[in-house]
Amino acid sequence: MSTDLSRERLLDAIEAQAGLVRFALEGAGGEGADLSSPVAACPGWTVHELVAHLGTANWWGGANVREANPEVRARGMRAVMESAPAATEGADALARWYAGLAEGAIETYAETEPDAPVWTFAGPGRADYWLRRQLHETAVHRWDLECALSGEAGTTPLMDDVALDTIDEFCTALRPIMSAALPPLPVTIRVRAGEHEWVLPGAEGEDGQTAPEVELTGPPETLALLLWGRVGSDAEGLEVTGDRRGLDAALEAGLSI
């Protein structure tokens, strides 16, 4: 079964995720977020550094679409990141900065034909590549932000259709590219969510033997968070069948860059 989201759904979802980022920064009751809070999923980063990264990433996605050059990636990320308000200026200032960049990128996606030529991580591609990529970038880092500020129990659930597409993008579009810079998987990982299945192939042994297998089933959001290294194999709702030791070794090494 396909996990393809319509363009309208992608636009609606990224707008919602960006809005949640701003809401988390502004805080309930107008009390701004503590920008010095550490972000467990991004060791060494504070909330301020996380949002500066995310705002820059959101801008860059839109910039690649605006450049409309399938051969060259957009430049200027450092200047955008350096334009983020200092932590001393407070959470409201950072929220406004972030919202301006995210809204500008979303407007670009809405105004550009989805098949317009652009540069992508996989080479020349379509403009809607960046709408999808930045939706999932925002969704994962929104979870990081909420978790840093309120704990895992305080995170906003990700809708199943979006989470399924997060898994699909990871397994079919990103992992094949990232795998070149990562250790070979010691185990073949089968990911199942309802009627959907994805396979991350493990490395063959020196004697040509196929890699052992492990199967993961569970809620789409939990599976997506596991692939991106946000939760472990013991996360609530996950079922693990097969070589759990191999799975834990793969997760310890990291499935993503």
TrEMBL record:
Keywords carried by this UniProt record: Isomerase
A Pfam family per the record: MDMPI_N
Gene3D superfamilies xref list: dinb family like domain
Domain MDMPI C-terminal: 161-247
Sequence ranges assigned to domain Mycothiol-dependent maleylpyruvate isomerase metal-binding in this UniProt record: 24-146
Sample GO molecular function, one term: isomerase activity
InterPro entries: DinB/YfiT-like, Maleyloyr_isom, MDMPI_C-term_domain, MDMPI_metal-binding
NCBIfam families found in the cross-reference section: maleylpyruvate isomerase family mycothiol-dependent enzyme
Name of this chain's protein: Maleylpyruvate isomerase family mycothiol-dependent enzyme
The species this protein was found in: Dietzia aurantiaca
